[in-house]
Amino acid sequence: MAPVTMPFAGISRLFQQVHLPQMLRSLSGVSPQDLGLALKRIALKRRPKGIPPVNSDFYDIRDLLSADERATLTTIRSYMEERVRPVIGDYWERGEFPHELVPSFAHLIKETWGRQPYAIDNLGPVLAGMAFMELARVDPSIYTFFGVHWGLAMGSIAMFGSAEQRAQWLPKMERFELLGSWSLTEPDVGSATAAGLTTTARREGDSWVLNGAKKWSGNAPFADLNVVWARDLGDNQVKGFLVERGTPGYVVEKLEGKIALRVVQNANITLTNCRVPEANRLQNAGSFRDVARQLGLARGAVAWAMTGTAMGAYEHALTYANHRIQFGQPIAGFQLVQSSLVQMLGNITAMQTLCLRMSQLHARDGKISQERASLAKAFCGEKMRETVALARNVLGGNGILLEYNVARFFADAEALYSYEGTHEMNTLIVGRAITGIGAFL
Ligand SMILES: Cc1cc2nc3c(=O)[nH]c(=O)nc-3n(C[C@H](O)[C@H](O)[C@H](O)COP(=O)(O)OP(=O)(O)OC[C@H]3O[C@@H](n4cnc5c(N)ncnc54)[C@H](O)[C@@H]3O)c2cc1C
Question: Which CATH superfamily is domain 180-280 in?
Fold first, then answer.
């Protein structure tokens, strides 16, 4: 093919703009040969008639769901787009939680998850995973709020509570009348929680006395109930305690100065001779193994949320690229920009299909494999980080402005990358599984 000459390139841009007077002026200086080429190009209809719909489900994973299940996801997506998206940037900037949304969010969860009591697992692993993805696709903070309350706090009571404890706490928590938090991490013990928590529990008659400190606990500044993990001085095993807000010796301070998930309220907590009744000890949690089992579930959920985070950033970047004009044409028409967009979509598709299979296996086996959840968390973490960075770059300077949405995903991704086990911890879990050698120490 003959090399493209400058006049032809000029005409090509004019066709993108469809600005007739300008086009005619340019045509007057164009050679007949270039004009012929240009007309041929029009005849080939290379310019798309319209902008294709933005779709981050390129391999149609939603099609694996039933019509009812798809409707559930649509309900969640509509709520997130209509109620959360318009307001969340302002809350993010102020570092505040949107309490005004809790009643409508509770209604959404009742409509989707919670048609039966003890609704925590109602959706099954695949649909639940996709629902987490939908939440994070609009806002990773709302996903995190829900993940801590529903997955970690309610999850602990559902998995390790006695029948009485489940009956006492879960119905109110399902209705979001009581909000939950979950405290494992300590100021000096993060990745190494399995090697030994320093927060202690001492049995005294019918109660337990807790001493120590916790860091990061999500929702804790406003939660009614916190699941606190502590080492029993009697048998050295890790046990879970339901600490109610207002308990003497339980002091919660909001953690300030975050540059990610600013909507999520995290806390530093001190426990000083904090006394809780034996009735508030999770009756069926006997060791750190139980916590690890719960962490496996949470990591699988975060892998889906990472996928949603990447989808949200990609969709905003693609929409932006289709409308941002530079050099007389949408930047989506530049090869380098398309390369970034395709890399993002490839990442997202890999994340979606990996998470999907993880959840299918979870459904098949009736439990999640910790190693598979860790691989998903580690892999999706890397791909999410790469995707949000590419998205932020597609927006140029606007990529760091909250108003354009991508900046929020870009920043929030950093928190998802670290919580529920850092990238290194999840890598080491898989490394141990495939080599038989633990490399943590
Ligand atoms: C936004 C946010 C919300 C959170 N919410 C909660 C919550 O609700 N409840 C809760 O209990 N916790 C929560 N966490 C805590 C979170 O789980 C921890 O941050 C995480 O486990 C890592 O611990 P750390 O921050 O103390 O890092 P550290 O353990 O100090 O690790 C620092 C670095 O060293 C690396 N490292 C550590 N050990 C090794 C090793 N053996 N080999 C190689 N590398 C290693 C880590 O991978 C990391 O890169 C939250 C954290 C964040 C950021």
Answer: Butyryl-CoA Dehydrogenase, subunit A, domain 2 (2.40.110.10)
Compute how many other C-beta atoms are within 10 angstroms of the C-beta atom of residue 366.
7
Ligand 1 atom 13 nearest Cα: 216
Strands 200-204, 266-277: pairing kind:
unpaired
Lookup: tokens for 216? 């990061």
Write down the pLDDT at residue 118. Answer: 65
Tokens representing 407? 């900046």
Lookup result for tokens 């993880």: 358
Contact between 371 and 361 (Cβ < 8 Å): no
Looking at the chain, which residues constitute the CATH 2.40.110.10 domain(s)? 180-280
Residue 259: both structure tokens together:
């540059």
CATH entry, 288-435, from 1.20.140.10, 2.30.38.10, 3.30.230.70, 2.30.40.10: 1.20.140.10
**Closest residue to atom 31 of ligand 1, CA basis:** 191
Give kind and range of the element (H or E) at residue 216: strand 207-218
Tell me, in angstroms, the distance from the centre of ligand 1 to residue 419's CA. 6
Q: Are 141 and 412 in contact, with CB atoms under 8 Å apart? A: yes
Ligand 1: residues with CB < 6 A are: 148, 182-185, 190-191, 216-218, 261, 266, 415, 418-419, 421-422, 424-425, 440
The Cα 324–Cα 396 span in angstroms is: 10
pLDDT tens digits for range 182-221:
999 999 999 999 988 999 999 999 999 999 999 999 999 9
114: burial class by Cβ within 10 Å (0-12, 13-18, 19+)?
buried
Averaged pLDDT of the chain: 91
Pocket test for ligand 1, best of 181, 185, 259, 261 (most atoms within 8 A of CB): 185
Under 8 Å CB-to-CB from 100, ≥6 apart: which residues? none
Relative to the CA of 193, which ligand 1 atom is closest?
21
CATH class of 61-174: mainly alpha
In 28-123, alpha helices (H): 32-43, 67-79, 85-94, 102-112
Mutational pocket test of ligand 1: of 418, 420, 426, 429, the residue with most ligand atoms within 8 Å of the beta carbon? 418
Phi–psi pair at 380, nearest 5 degrees: -65, -30
